[in-house]
Design goal:
- Belongs to the pectinacetylesterase family.
- Keywords: Cell wall, Cell wall biogenesis/degradation, Hydrolase, Secreted.
- With about 325 residues, this protein is an alpha/beta fold.
- The chain folds into two domains: about 1-160, no CATH class; about 195-325, no CATH class.
- Helices cover about 25% and strands about 15% of the residues.
- The chain is built from ten helices and twelve strands.
- Strand 10 (about 285) and strand 11 form a beta hairpin.
- The protein starts with a strand and ends in an 18-residue tail after the last strand.
Amino acid sequence: MTLVSDASNNGGFCLDGSLPAYHLHRGFGAGASNWLLQFEGGGWCNDIQSCLDRAKTKRGSSLYMNKLEDFNGILSNDASLNPDFYNWNRVKLRYCDGGSFSGDAKFDNGTSVLYFRGQKIWEAIILDLLPKGLGKADKGRDITLNYTMRTFFENLVSLQGIEKNLDKNCTSFLDNPKLCMFPQYFLNYMTTPFFILNTAYDVYQFHHALVPPSADMNGDWKGCKLSIASCTPQQLDILQGFRGDMLAALRSFFMDSTNGGMFINSCFGHCQSETQETWFSLGSPIIQDKTIAGAVGDWYFSRNISKFIDCAYPCDASCHNIIAQVS
């Protein structure tokens, strides 16, 4: 793990004031001048108390991060497991700001201090990587909710000073600029080629956006959250509607984007590019005989048009359907 010592020059601190960090695995051979940047995920904090709690974990402080990190899935250096990107320079940016690398604010009440400096962290890491070869990169790709979470995200945008870093074309067009934190709104303004990888039944969104604990006080969804086999027909109808809403939000991207790619499968899961089992292996999820790794590679290298939308659950027998709680 590399700590970015120069981050203090621009105030790019983790929530607790510790230095931001990343892991770098050098590329080699034909991929030595290509770079792939993965933004670590891990949810958000949208009020002072949740951010103070987060600052005492690896999601808010580099003091608690693992010094060594396994690179799997799209970060693997094994050609048999990651055929298109195995020999690139692969970077994992550790996530410690609680605002998706977007904020620029500070909280200080005289007792507690929190740094909401995600945008500054991003800048500091990039500046650290430029002299290490990123500045001469031939290619680079950064990889790294729904209406029920709108209040959560509005609080997040306000708390962490994110709005000024949102797309200006988007924020000037919408009556509520904070909506530009949502992909279905800002995608229309992105000019960078973009690949969307997600499940139509994302478990994190299922558990925290579609059916958050506050909306299920009687525990009617408890069994369904633990096992799809326990879902009632009515609950399955709601999940199918959830999928339909997502596909409707992505329709214009699917139909009109000339340089975009997409892989939306009908599996219950989360973060499919980070695990070898779902990225590229025997038994990986597929759509039309195409793995996730194959779809991303076809899109990036312009081998084929790469837009895949799966049929609705339960039609896809290749799904692993990992529905355990995602925090």
